[in-house]
Amino acid sequence: MALEKIKCIEATAVCVAGDDIDTDRIIPARFLKSITFDGLGEFAFYDERKNPDGTDKPHPLNAPEAKGAGVLVSGMNFGCGSSREHAPQALWRRGIRAIVAGSFAEIFFGNATTIGLACVCATRENLDALARWVEKNPREKVRVDLENLRVSFGGNNIEVSMPDSTRRALLDGRWDPIADLLENADKISALAAKLP
């Protein structure tokens, strides 16, 4: 059961500025009632994007040029707060395939990368440069290169980081541990049969 090998994400980007963006901001708790994750994309950053009557507020994700963005640029400690796996699922289902931030909360990072959502870290200086460029060029593509650990935009290249084990899992298409278990079901059964 081979999974997609995630080597490079090339897409338009959107900036959701700020540090310590927590999972409750990413997906408010009242939307966690669903049995599946289907449809969660429309609720990503809902309270920041929508008024109580459902009309749009000014927000980067509501901008026409953000439609179809596949790269999210943010600040430090992205995904902090509760450990809800709905947060990366909501972003994934909104079309985000990579997040470039200063750092990530550990549980968010794990939940994101095990669904194939690449999360890379950049220095504050490089993040600021990327954010400024994206805001001036919202319809231009950003390239997140996991093989070379760099993000390219408008002729610029910045270095990014990611734990090597996670990077290898994405590059090799082994990012979903459940898929790994299913792929090795025969070996697991054979070993279990040998145990007393």
Using the CA coordinates, give the radius of gyration: 18 Å
Widest β-sheet, arrangement of strands? 4-3-2-1-5-6-7
Low-confidence stretches: none
**Sheet with most strands:** 7 strands, mixed
* CA-based shape: globular
First-to-last CA distance: 30 Å
Oligomer: single chain
Question: Please, how many helices?
Answer: 8
State the order of secondary-structure elements, H for helix, E for strand.
EHHEHEHEHEEEHHH
What structural category do the secondary elements indicate? alpha/beta
Question: Portion of residues in helices?
Answer: 25-40%
- Percent strand: 15-25%
* Mean pLDDT metric: 92
In total, the number of strands is: 7
Output the keywords:
single chain; about 200 residues; alpha/beta; seven-stranded mixed beta sheet; globular
Detailed description of the structure:
The protein is of the alpha/beta class and 196 residues long. Helices cover 32% and strands 16% of the residues. The chain has helices at residues 23-26, 46-49, 86-93, 106-113, 124-136, 164-172, 177-183, 185-194; strands at 8-15, 71-73, 98-101, 118-121, 141-145, 150-153, 156-159. A seven-stranded mixed β-sheet has the order 4-3-2-1-5-6-7. Strand 3 (98-101), helix 4 and strand 4 form a beta-alpha-beta unit. The radius of gyration is 18 Å and the shape is globular. The relative contact order is 0.19.
Write the layout of secondary structure elements.
Elements: E1 8-15, H1 23-26, H2 46-49, E2 71-73, H3 86-93, E3 98-101, H4 106-113, E4 118-121, H5 124-136, E5 141-145, E6 150-153, E7 156-159, H6 164-172, H7 177-183, H8 185-194
Parallel strand pairs: 1-2, 2-3, 3-4
Antiparallel strand pairs: 1-5, 5-6, 6-7
